[in-house]
């Protein structure tokens, strides 16, 4: 079964889209084909992969979720568009601002299951799909992604926003599982994100709190360090693997470990 990895927090600014882009780069570095799905109407993930929000493809995530589910199985094959030449081997279902309209679309019956149906049969057996979710409390877009996913990773900055975002994300994930919408969804863990170097009392306190509260779900072994090179590659819309130097290597190693963890979670 193909891996479909959702990246989710209910707070913005915690490195969610940066992690999604890092996982795409890590998968390509391992020689794996990648399918990327952007469910955030801000379309920052799409933009990093070289698809400008001002030049959205004719068939976007918004269109896919708005279609009648009858006959929707495998329809993602028609929605994929190639990422830019800087991201070879990556195909994308891009977001656009109109995607926000799906949250209040009461005519779209079963919208939460449409992405899973659309991906059914549209991914190759070794392809990794990475989904970037909007930073919001539940809602139809978040639920659609969590229903389609096999794994979910929760990035958390070691501050109050990271703590709240992780706690609320876990509550939404639990609801999706408890309602039987995707009971087999694997939570890879809460991953410390954009972690500053050096000693920091708040960093230590939040890390200790997450460890005490969530036990093995807190994954300090998968921590993502804060390095400016990540923002530089995002601005340039190129993968972190295109950069050189120790900071780039550290980030590549971190993303690779997280991707590997999605393949070993029980």
Automatic annotation (TrEMBL):
Highest taxon of the lineage: Bacteria
Ranges where the AAA domain occurs: 3-186
Name listed for the protein in its UniProt record: ParA family protein
Species per Swiss-Prot/TrEMBL record: Streptomyces bohaiensis
Organism ancestry: Bacteria, Bacillati, Actinomycetota, Actinomycetes, Kitasatosporales
């Amino acid at each position: 079964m193909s891996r479909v990895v959702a990246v989710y927090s209910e707070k913005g600014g915690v490195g969610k889209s940066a992690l999604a882009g890092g996982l795409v780069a890590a998968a390509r570095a391992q020689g794996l084909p990648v399918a990327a799905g952007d469910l955030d109407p801000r379309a920052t993930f799409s933009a990093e992969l070289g698809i400008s929000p001002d030049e959205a493809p004719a068939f976007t995530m918004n269109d896919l979720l708005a279609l009648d589910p009858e006959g929707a199985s495998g329809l993602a094959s028609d929605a994929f568009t190639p990422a830019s030449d800087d991201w070879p081997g990556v195909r994308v279902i891009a977001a656009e601002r109109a995607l926000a309209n799906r949250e209040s679309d009461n005519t779209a019956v079963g919208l939460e299951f449409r992405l899973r149906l659309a991906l059914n049969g549209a991914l190759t057996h070794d392809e990794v799909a990475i989904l970037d979710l909007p930073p919001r409390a539940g809602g139809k877009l978040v639920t659609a992604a969590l229903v389609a996913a096999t794994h979910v990773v929760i990035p958390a900055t070691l501050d109050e926003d990271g703590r709240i975002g992780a706690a609320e994300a876990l509550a939404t994930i639990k609801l999706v599982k408890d309602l039987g919408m995707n009971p087999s969804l694997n939570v890879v863990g809460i991953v410390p994100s954009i972690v500053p170097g050096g000693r920091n009392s708040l960093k230590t306190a939040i890390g200790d709190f997450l460890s005490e509260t969530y036990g093995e779900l807190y994954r300090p072994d998968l921590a993502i360090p804060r390095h400016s090179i990540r923002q530089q590659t995002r601005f340039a819309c190129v993968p972190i693997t295109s950069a050189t130097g120790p900071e780039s290597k550290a980030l590549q190693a971190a993303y690779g470990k997280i991707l590997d963890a999605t393949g070993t979670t029980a």
